[in-house]
Amino acid sequence: MTNRQPAPAAVPHSPSTAGGTPAVPAARTADPRPTAPVELDYHGRKHRRAMDDASLRDMARRIPTALAQTARLAWSVDRRMTITILLCQLLSGLGTAVMLTAVSKALPHLATSDARTGLRAAWPSLAVAVAAMATGAGMWILADWATRRLNPKIASAADLTLVDLHMRAELSAYDTHGFTDRSQAAETGALRAVDLADDAKTLTNGLVQLVSAATVLTSLHPLLLGVLLLSVVPRGLGGVIAARIDYRVHDRTVSARTVRGMMRWWLTTSELADELRANTMRPYLHAWYRTMCDRVEGRELEGARPYLLVTLLAASLAGLFTFGMWAALAALALSGAMSTAIAGTAIVASQTAGRALNSIVRYGAVMFHHGLYLSDYHAFVDEVRSMTTARGTVQAKAPQQIRLCEAEFTYPEKEAPALHPITLTLNRGEVVALVGENGAGKSTLIRMLTGLTVPTGGTVRWDDTDLATADAESVWQHVGLVPQKNGHWPLRARENITLGQPREHSDDRIWDAATRVGMTEALEGLPHQLDTLLARSVWGGHELSGGQWQRLACARAMYREPAVLVLDEPTSEMDARGEHLIFRKLREMAPDRITVVVTHRLDNVRMADRVIVLEKGLIREEGTFDALVTTEGSLLGELYALSQDR
Ligand SMILES: Nc1ncnc2c1ncn2[C@@H]1O[C@H](COP(=O)(O)OP(=O)(O)OP(=O)(O)O)[C@@H](O)[C@H]1O
C-alpha cells in the first residue's frame, strides 16, 4: 500500500512589519488531509494463516491437545468443578442413549392401530424417555453453572501467571526480539482460555451425544450408522468452511482493530486532551479514526456474501441428504427390511446426532483457533519462566563499596556494547554524579550498579558479593531507585510513598519522607490526606502535577533509607525550590549510603563528591566538579559552558 503524505497546506506569505520585526504567521485553518493509516501486522501472531492452511486432519489432531490443555488448566484451578462438568457430560450422554432406547421401545406400541391400547403400553417407555431428556437438560444446566464458576478462576489464574512472570523476568527478556508481540499473543491466549472452557464443554457434550446416538442407532440396525453419517457430513463440511470464512475476516481485521483500539485510548484519555485540543489535532485524528472504522467495516462486509453462500449450500445439501435418508428409511420400512418403529427412532436419533455434530464442528473449529492462542500462552510462560531472575542464592548485604571490574554491557541482539569495560569503585558516604550526553550509557551503568542487569562481561561486586551470583531480591532490598520514568501508581498517597516496604502502624516516617521532598503541604491539602487515591480518572481520585509526582518518587526512594540510593534525572520536572531541597537532603543523607545521581542540569553536579563523565559507553573523565570544569578540553567543561551560554 502506498502511503502518500498529504500535500503541505499553503502557508500565506507573511510580510515583515515596517519596523523589520517578522509578523506572526497566520493560523492555518484548513483541515489537513489525513494520511491513510499504515497497514500493521504483529510478529507475535504467527497463527495468522493457520486457519486457512490447516486441513481437516490437522484440525482434528489439534483439538485433543487443546482439550487436554484446557482440562489441565481447569483441573489446576478447581478440581471439584472440573469433575462436576465431566460427570454432567457423561450423564447427559447417558440420558440421550436412554431416551433413544426408550423411544425405540415406545414406537412399536404407538404404531398399532388402536391408539388407546398403544399409548397404555407405551407410556412407561415414554415416561423413561421424558425423564432421560429432563435429566440430560438438567445435567447441561449444571455443567453450565460449573463452567461459570470455573471461568473467572481460569481467567484470574492465567492472567496472574502472566503478570507475575513479567514482574519476575530479567530485564533482558524485554529486549529479546518480538518479546512484546509474544507477550501480546500470550495475553490473547490467557483471555481465550476462558472461552476454551466453554467451547470444550459444548464440544465434549456434542461428542458424547453423537456417540450415544450412533451407539443406539447401530444397535437398532447397523445400516443406520452409514445413513446417519451421510446426513451429517454436508452440515459438518459447511460448518468448517463457514468457520474458516469467519476467522479469515477476523484475521484480516485484527490488526486494524488493535491499532484502532490503541488510538481510541489516546483520543479519549484526559492525559492527551490538552495536546489534542491546543494543537488542533482533532480533524486529522477524527479522519484517521474514521478511515480505520471504514477499513474494518469494509472487510467484515466482504466476508458476509461468501458466508451466506456457504451456509446456504451446506443447509441445502444437508436438507437433500436428510430427505434422502428419510426416503431410504421409508423404502426400508416399506420393503420390510426395517420395522416402522425402528425407522421412526432413526429419524429422532439422526436429529439428535445432527445437532451434536453441529456443535462438534462449530466448536471444534473455534477450539482449534483458540487452542493456537492457548499454545502461545503456554510457550510464552515456558519462555519467561526460563528468564526469571534466578541468579544465585548468595544473600547480598548493604555494601560499603561497589566495585566494577572490567564490567561491560551489550543489550541483547545488539552488536555494539552500550558500556565498554569499566573499572570503578564507589564508596559509602560518597555522592557520585554521572554526567554525559544522551545515549552515553548512564542509565545502563545504573542498572549494573543496582543489580537490575548483570554485566555481559567482567564483574560488579558489592563488597565481596558478585551480583551475578547473588539472590536478586536480596540485592534490591538495599536499593532505592528513582528512574527516569517513574510510576504514577493509581494507589493512595500513603502507598505511593511506602510501596515496596513492609507496612508500619505509624505514618511518622511517611511524613518525614514527604518533608524531605517538600510535599507536606501538598499532601495535607489533599481531600483525604494520605488516604487520597492518586488517580484522576477513577471516581474520587486526585491527580498531582508532574513535578509533584517526581517529588513523590524521590520520597519513595528516601523512605526506604537504602544503602544504595540512585536517582536518574530526579528533578527534571521540579521547580527551583524543589530541586534545591532534594539535592540538600541528598547531601544530608549521604553519610549512611552510596548515592549516585544522574543529571543533565550541571549546576546540580557541584554538590557531588565526584563526577564521572561518560562518553559513548566509556569513562572519559573523573574527578571533582571544580577540577574537571576548569581542565582544558574537558567534556564537562564544554557541556557546562554550553549550559551557561544563553
Ligand atoms: N533496552 C535497550 N535495548 C537496546 N539498547 C538500549 C536499551 N536501552 C538503551 N539502549 C542503548 O544503549 C545506549 C546507552 O543508553 P542509556 O539509556 O544507558 O543512555 P543514557 O546515557 O542514560 O541516555 P539519556 O541521557 O538519554 O538518558 C544507547 O545507545 C541506547 O540506544
TrEMBL record:
Subcellular location: Cell membrane
SUPFAM superfamilies: ABC transporter transmembrane region, P-loop containing nucleoside triphosphate hydrolases
Membrane-topology descriptor: Multi-pass membrane protein
Domain ABC transporter: 402-641
Keyword Lyase listed: no
Molecular function per GO: ABC-type oligopeptide transporter activity; ATP binding; ATP hydrolysis activity
Record-annotated membrane-spanning stretches: 82-103, 123-143, 307-334
SMART domains: AAA
One GO cellular component term: plasma membrane
Region described as Disordered: spans on this chain: 1-44
Compositionally biased tracts (Low complexity): 21-38
Gene3D superfamilies associated with the record: ABC transporter type 1, transmembrane domain, P-loop containing nucleotide triphosphate hydrolases
Principal cellular location given in the protein's record: membrane
Keywords: ATP-binding, Membrane, Nucleotide-binding, Transmembrane, Transmembrane helix
UniProt-recorded name of the protein: ABC transporter
Organism of provenance: Streptomyces mangrovisoli
